[in-house]
Amino acid sequence: MAIECCKSFVLRLTAVVLILTTGVVAAPFKAYDKDQASLRFMVLGDWGGLPAYPYRTGVEKDVAARMGKVAETMDYKFVLGLGDNFYFDGVQNEFDKRFQETFEDVFTAKSLDIPWYFIAGNHDHNGNVSAQIAYTKRANKRSNKWNFPSLYYSLNYTVPGTNTTVTIIQYDSITLCGNTDDFEDGLLMGPENLQVATTQLEWLEQQLKATKSDYVIVTAHYPVWSAAEHGPTKCLVQQVKPLLEHYGVTAYFSGHDHNLQHLKEEDSDVEYFVIGCANFIDTSQKHKESVPKDSLKFIWAEDKGRGGFAQVQVTEEDLTFTFLESEDGKELYQRVMKPRKLK
Length: 343
Fold this sequence. Notes:
The protein has helices at residues 58-74, 98-104, 129-135, 173-177, 194-210, 234-239, 241-246, and strands at residues 2-4, 39-44, 78-81, 116-118, 146-147, 153-158, 165-170, 215-219, 251-254, 260-263, 271-275, 296-300, 308-314, 319-325, 331-337. The chain has 343 residues and is of the alpha/beta class. The chain has a single domain (2-24, 37-337), classed as Purple Acid Phosphatase, chain A, domain 2 (4-Layer Sandwich). The chain has an eight-stranded mixed β-sheet with strand order 1-6-7-8-9-11-10-12, with helices on one face. The model is unreliable at 4-27 (pLDDT under 50).
């Protein structure tokens, strides 16, 4: 593997679970074969606890416990964290107690003592993102899980025992599109520094153009498409979506809205997943009519305080993405994707 280089918050508890699925998903979920050559990892977003005691929520604790339990038997190689690592204003410096109180003291299972790769969310940008990057190399940490090498970066893997390759491109959607608060929709004011945004977008295209991997996953905090509270991110629909389609990206992972979603447009091969309910739950479906017709395949959030996360398994044959809930690890939804067909 190589690396390339307290505000108001409204929890909406007014709706019940909504699950939208295609007929295909009604079939039994694909079983995970531990003996099959594969690369497995976990994904969570918006997990960032609280800025005051006890510095974590019940949902975060439950998600951490369930992730640890599931990881005992699944041989995960790493975890992707999709931003909003520390509510509501990030951290101040690399010695901030939030690293301990909200991360190290919560995700304590031995099975989770694997690399975690982070990007920043809008709440992280309210604080010092450079401190989160610096914490990666800080001495005398409780664990070596935390990896945040730069604002944006790529990860490259080969599925053990095969020639199947995976590229994960993690970029910073806040510096690209601008910051927001929890009461704004997807229309942002624009980047704070246009040159920084332009440089990052050029880097993203260079990464996409260069990779020949069988599977390519792009991650960011802001979603391209979302049917929930914040809705689609217009900046990303305009600037990033065309790149995803042109270069044949397998999937786009994001957080920001506090639920689980899968969206796919009929005329596109790109699969969009929102994984954002590892700390707060928001049942809003405010933007159901703002996404392309028939693109919303699944959306889940409920008012019982259960969070969720995802697991991914990559083999020579396919990539299997599964949503799980925190109470008992129940598999909520699954999507199977095939390797890319390079032009």
